[in-house]
């Protein structure tokens, strides 16, 4: 039989993931990592330094600088968001916390846009499962909702999302607006007004976040896909979609020219870059990449269809930027939402044996990681086992561990929730299409919560600059300006924020009593 689609899904398999459970799960992943920590090395505190300078009025809002140095990322919007948060935050909220209260909204936008993008893609005719001879196939709306739920689980399960998505850098803004563009291009055929507004906002946000070229590539690819793949249920014809795409891309070009955002960052594709790229790709995008490849194979007869072509194009652009630009991991971050979307479309074609293999591997891997995190924490608190305690002392010399009852309770609750989730997954329940991704997403969230609770004091000490700044200040017995030489943006930001120092670049005529090199 010549099947129009490889997806064979019954109505019983598309029961919805409980909304409250999904919401609490997303909150448990988003909030840890933003609350309770200080700015970390290197990109995190460097970006915060530019925001802090803008808020204090020490730099131009159209050309942010840090002691005269331009930012590493040619972005504007992320620094504006952080500076506005600092300026309007109440006095009892520290500037770095004010910034970290705004940037979680960008991560939430990433998750929400991915969900709705996959929902609209799964509603297209070519993405629907095979109709059964006597009925009982999945309802289109229920099927789309279940696929969207699966995409969120696949995205949270990606190992590379954790740290970079919880930093206050332009990278998070780029992935948020990239995801918004993904949703917009998926929704425009059915919701031209909402999709068009989202597309203009997304491409504009990408351009102002330092990625105008990627915005144009996303827009051009989406336009080509709209021309090639047409759905009978489209509310907006291609002739109506074309002006929206062109207007959004012209706006990107105009903004990039006005704010001088065009900069050549392409590097030579040397053979020496392939091995590190391969290692980065394998762990950073796990477990989405094998599922995405399986989707491309099983849906190979529908590669030109929107539900496959659109996430595939977004993934190709992100992977290409990873190979050709210096910030490889931050560029690859933009490919994760699209890769998660492709991973979701693999689920209707997976056999039970493959799903069981995913479950067992995930169970062993994340349970082992959780055990390691707990053992290291116990070693920090008690000195036993001695080897982990010695490793912590070597990596963070001078660190004095402290016990937090609140963090301990949160970590214990997350561990018990993981045990319950494993028990639920291994029990006999009705089959749901998203069940294969519950343990990968739950395991990734568990380890992230454990690290951000049990290990947070040690990470703040080792990855923050405040201990170093305090050590520098302890040797300065009289006030005065400080000259600096050879310091990075992150170190300058730390000295200005944590130390409140009046910094100046070292020159031939020394006017300050102190010099830091």
Please tell me about this protein's structure:
This protein has 517 residues and is mainly alpha-helical. The protein folds into three domains: 19-33 and 103-349, no CATH class; 352-463, no CATH class; 466-516. The chain contains 23 helices and three strands. Helix 2 packs across helix 23 (489-497), helix 5 (104-122) runs parallel beside helix 8 (170-187) and helix 8 packs parallel to helix 10. The longest helix has 31 residues, at 352-382. The chain is globular and about 85 Å long.
Give a nutshell description of this structure.
The chain contains 23 helices and three strands.
Strand order of the largest sheet: 2-1-3
Total DSSP E strands: 3
**How does the overall form come out from the CA principal axes?**
globular
Helix and strand string, N-terminal first? Answer: HHHHHHHHHHHHHHHHHHHHHHEHEE
Query: What profile does the largest beta sheet have?
Result: 3 strands, parallel
Tally of individual helices: 23
Break the fold down into its secondary structure elements and pairings:
Layout: H1 19-30, H2 43-56, H3 77-88, H4 95-102, H5 104-122, H6 140-157, H7 161-164, H8 170-187, H9 192-208, H10 212-228, H11 238-258, H12 274-284, H13 288-298, H14 306-324, H15 328-332, H16 336-344, H17 352-382, H18 386-395, H19 405-426, H20 438-454, H21 456-463, H22 466-473, E1 482-484, H23 489-497, E2 503-505, E3 514-516
């Amino acid at each position: 039989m010549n099947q129009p689609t490889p997806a064979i899904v019954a109505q019983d398999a598309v029961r919805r993931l409980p909304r409250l459970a999904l919401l609490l799960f997303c909150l448990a992943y988003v909030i840890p990592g933003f609350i309770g920590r200080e700015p970390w090395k290197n990109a995190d505190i460097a970006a915060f330094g530019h925001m802090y300078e803008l808020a204090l009025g020490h730099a131009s809002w159209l050309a942010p600088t840090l002691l005269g140095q331009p930012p590493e990322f040619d972005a504007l919007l992320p620094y504006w968001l952080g500076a506005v948060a600092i300026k309007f935050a109440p006095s009892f909220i520290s500037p770095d916390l004010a910034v970290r209260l705004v940037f979680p909204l960008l991560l939430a936008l990433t998750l929400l846009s991915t969900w709705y993008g996959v929902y609209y893609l799964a509603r297209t005719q070519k993405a629907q499962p095979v109709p059964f001879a006597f009925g009982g196939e999945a309802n289109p709306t229920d099927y789309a909702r279940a696929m969207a739920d699966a995409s969120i689980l696949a995205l949270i399960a990606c190992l590379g999302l954790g740290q970079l998505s919880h930093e206050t850098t332009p990278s998070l803004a780029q992935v948020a607006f990239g995801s918004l563009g993904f949703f917009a291009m998926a929704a425009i055929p059915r919701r031209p007004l909402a999709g068009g507004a989202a597309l203009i906002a997304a491409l504009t946000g990408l351009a102002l976040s330092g990625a105008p070229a990627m915005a144009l590539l996303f827009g051009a690819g989406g336009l080509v896909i709209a021309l090639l793949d047409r759905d009978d249920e489209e509310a907006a014809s291609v002739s109506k979609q074309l002006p929206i795409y062109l207007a959004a891309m012209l706006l990107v070009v105009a903004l990039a020219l006005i704010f001088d955002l065009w900069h050549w960052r392409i590097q030579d594709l040397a053979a020496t870059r392939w091995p590190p790229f391969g290692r980065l790709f394998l762990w950073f995008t796990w477990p989405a990449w094998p599922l995405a490849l399986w989707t491309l194979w099983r849906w190979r007869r529908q590669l030109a269809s929107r539900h496959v072509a659109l996430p595939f194009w977004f993934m190709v652009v992100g992977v290409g930027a990873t190979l050709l630009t210096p910030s490889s991991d931050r560029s690859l971050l933009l490919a994760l939402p699209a890769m998660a979307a492709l991973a979701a479309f693999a689920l209707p074609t997976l056999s039970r044996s493959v799903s069981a293999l995913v479950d067992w591997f995930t169970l062993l891997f994340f349970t082992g990681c959780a055990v390691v995190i707990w053992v290291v924490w116990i070693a920090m608190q008690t000195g036993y086992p001695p080897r982990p305690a010695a490793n912590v002392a070597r990596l963070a010399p001078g660190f004095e561990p402290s016990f937090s009852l609140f963090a301990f309770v949160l970590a214990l609750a997350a561990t018990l929730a993981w045990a319950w989730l494993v028990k639920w997954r291994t029990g006999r329940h009705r089959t749901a299409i998203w069940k294969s991704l519950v343990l990968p997403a739950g395991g990734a969230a568990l380890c992230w919560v454990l690290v951000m609770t049990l290990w947070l004091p040690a990470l703040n000490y080792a990855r923050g600059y405040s201990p170093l700044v305090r050590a520098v200040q302890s040797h300065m017995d009289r006030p005065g300006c400080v000259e600096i030489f050879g310091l990075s943006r992150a170190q300058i930001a730390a000295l200005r924020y944590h130390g409140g120092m009046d910094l100046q670049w070292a020159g031939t005529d020394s006017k300050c009593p102190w010099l830091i090199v």
